[in-house]
Amino acid sequence: MSIAKILAPLTGGTRDANVLASAFAAAKPFNAHVVALFVRPDPAEAMPFFGEGVSGAVVQEIIDATREAADKAAEIAKASLKKAADESGAVVIAAPQKSNAPSASYVEVEGNFADQVSQASRLSDLIVFGPLSERDKPGLTEAFEAALVETGRPILLTAQTLPRNFARRIAVAWDGSVPCAHAVMAAMPYLAKAEAIEILTVQKQVSDQQKTDDLREYFALHGLSATTRAIEAGDKPVGEVLLEAAAKSADLLVLGGYGHSRLREMFAGGVTRHVVSHAELPLFLVH
Question: How many other CB atoms are found less than 10 A from the CB of residue 214?
Answer without folding.
Answer: 13
